[in-house]
Amino acid sequence: SGLKYTVNRSVPEGDIIVSISGSAMYTVKDQVYRMANASCITPAPAALVSPAEKGKIYFVIGLDSYTVNGMVYSMDAVTYLKNNRTYVPVRYLAYALGITPENVRWEGESRTATLRNETVEVVLTCGSTDIYVNGRKKTMDVAAELEKDRLMVPARWVAEAFGARVGWDGIRRTVILMVEPAGSPLL
């Protein structure tokens, strides 16, 4: 009881999860106790974005959050690595690239996602390596797939279709997308 937090303003809106572990706890060996202890209700103001972070998007393997312009956002799925490709939830990748929620469509019957901004339309189908960019078919080296009811896509193919440059930090296990400020409404 009596816990107090000092957090920077890049904390995502939503629950703050506390993890407690250690030898002083009366628990099963190596067990970690996790609980939502507080909730952040005010997002960070855009004025606090560091110039060094402007235009950068990060998806870290194993996390259910992503970072845009230095601000952290929550996801309901976890980024993962498979066949040397970083898979991210298509919806959150689209949001990170500045695509508005009304321009992210999922057709359950055909298992197809359509993402659209002012100049680009991308269509992907679960289980297929085909990606259509403005109607032109390209072939990805891995297929989009469903994981826990979320369409997961190889980050590079979708990000590059929307004009982002893509990098990889192997030490931090992070895919880094770089978007020019004029290329995204978020920037």
Task: Describe the protein.
- By secondary structure, this protein is mostly beta strands.
- Strand 9 (112-116) and strand 10 (121-125) form a beta hairpin.
- It contains two helices and 16 strands.
- It has helices at 90-96, 155-161, and strands spanning 14-20, 33-40, 56-60, 65-68, 71-74, 80-82, 85-89, 104-107, 112-116, 121-125, 130-133, 136-139, 145-147, 150-154, 165-169, 174-178.
- Strands 5-4-3-16-15 form a five-stranded antiparallel beta sheet, covered by helices on one side.
- Helices cover 7% and strands 41% of the residues.
- The longest helix is centred in the middle third of the chain and has 7 residues, at 90-96.
- Mean pLDDT is 82; it is low at 182-187.
Question: What are the key terms here?
Answer:
187 residues; 5-stranded antiparallel sheet; globular; disordered C terminus
Taking Cα atoms only, what radius of gyration do you get, to the nearest Å?
Answer: 18 Å
The proportion of residues in beta strands is 35-45%
Q: Regarding quaternary structure, how should these chains be classified?
A: single chain
Could you say which overall geometry the principal axes of the C-alpha atoms support? Answer: globular
In the sheet with the most strands, the strands line up as: 5-4-3-16-15
Largest sheet: 5 strands, antiparallel
Structural class: mainly beta
